[in-house]
Batch of 2 targets.
Target 1
Amino acid sequence: MLHNQSKHTSLTEAEQRQAELEEREGLKSRLLEEEALRRGHDVRRLTYDTAIITINSRDCLFKDMNGPLSSAANMGICDDKNVARSLLKVNGLTVPASTYVRLTETDKIEDFAKEIGFPVVIKPNNLARGEGVFTHIDSVESLHNHLQKLSKLISDESEKILIEKQFIGDDFRFFVVDGEVLATTKRARSNVTGDGKHTVLELIEAKNQLRLQNRDLKNFLIPTDPSKLGRLFRQGKTLDTVLDDGEYIEVRDESNIASGGDGIDFHETVHPTFKDIAVQAIQSVPGLHYGGVDVIAEDITVAPTEENHVVTEVEFSPGPLSMFPWEGPPRDMAGPILDFYVNTL
């Protein structure tokens, strides 16, 4: 049944003030500040995403949730998908077959796609939140069309991009601090569930009203622009389609929260060996003490093999996905990071 959201169509005055505050002060930084203040630490805000937190009588500079033991070198490696992937591979983790090539070298890109076989994924090497990531490319013609789209997002076409074999499965984010996995979250693609009465557009709008009540998801609504809903149309549906009662449909290919996806808690059901893989992935980047690990798996509840999963990325500054899930209990990120510094400094 479609939720009646009439009472939620506008934010309260308090919620508006909170939204304005978080616009000025990045959400990750704000969450860390709130936890530090709750624990009695002195906090001095510097910019929207940086603050000084006094820990064990020491002033510590934090940007988002990254503190004095998070180096610029760590960030550079994690942001460079190709370099990070090479470290994962050297450390024995299963990663997608991929290559790193200039955007203008279309012949090389095409040859590699044919070599590894379609479908393939292309992505910029250092953009965030899924920007410029194109999936389900299943032909040479589609590949060239998406390369043209990507070129419009990259100012310097001499930059290199990743092209990789697409692994079919669900996308999961692990949050690791000091050798321990503290959250496991499925990043479900943008979706709606029918009620036999309302159109896909109406279902999206109703779900977006619910997302507006979530401190994280309110920033990442499901788009209604048809050009961003390729998965919907490939299934023979449109925004005017009325789904059957209980019919679940994914409307976008991207599997991240910034694309309108849902965070679903899997921490208690994930196979424990996947947690070991996530810890190993963080430890593959020398000096990295905490961060996010992205894994695509056919079934996260069964033991991992070389065939049923790939590790795709290490995130230096992961979003607060586990703290504001669409389904399941919230799992803290700010507290464990503060604990790490209290116990380490």
Target 2
Amino acid sequence: MKPLNLIALLLFLGVGTWVLTWSPHTVREVQFTYYKAITPFLHGGSGIDNFARAFVKEVEHSKTLERKLQAIQENYEGLKIIEGRFLEMERENAQLNRALDFRERTPFKVIPAKVIKRQPSAWWDTVTINRGEPAGIGPQLTVLAEGGLVGRVDKSFDTDVAEVVLVSDESCQVSVYIEGTPEKGILSGQPGQFGGDPLLRVRYLSKNAAIQPGMRVLTTGSGRLFPPDIMVGTVVRRIPGSYEDEALVKPSVDLHNLNVVFVLTGDQPNETGDKAEDKE
């Protein structure tokens, strides 16, 4: 045995023998001093234990709240979807009511149709509707909407769809007159208009034509492609030219939000044909 270990053993035996010689009173005093010394540590340990228990409960409570919050968020998202569907149904119902009202008010025989597709390469130029040959729709028929002229049918298919060329297309030329003036001209779309509201152009107006912004532009009925006196738009401004003037026109129909249209059938009331002949 090493000397240090031997010394430590002898000291331990000596202290143990000395302790055994203590009187009961001395032992109680030592115990009292010992417990008094460790009491703060015992209380501290109890406080730490209570804190740990409270922390665990708080964590469990937070997890419960998190699960409840997640459930509320899921319910909220579901309600948002339901609200969106309700608003969409409400919008479609309003469109249907306006369409029915227009159909009752118009003097023409019309077939209602819904826009189901827009050409992405020429947003303002052509649209596809859900009515075609089976519904009696053929090429060159006039297409209207609430507000006025939309365009004309370009192609009709036996799959019950048809393509409509809008008035904003350069190829859709309309004989028009400016209300309150003797001015007549040819209206058509302008190429290269993407985004924003399209403007139509009226050509062949008189030099220094007496037209002002806000004047209404309507069809003349010449050529019998379009019936007379159909609203096309309003003058935005006059463009002076060397030999003749032109005018820019804002369409009376919101072509950007075109949803329901009406196709004029080939057999219109006699008074429409009489008006066309009078205009000519």
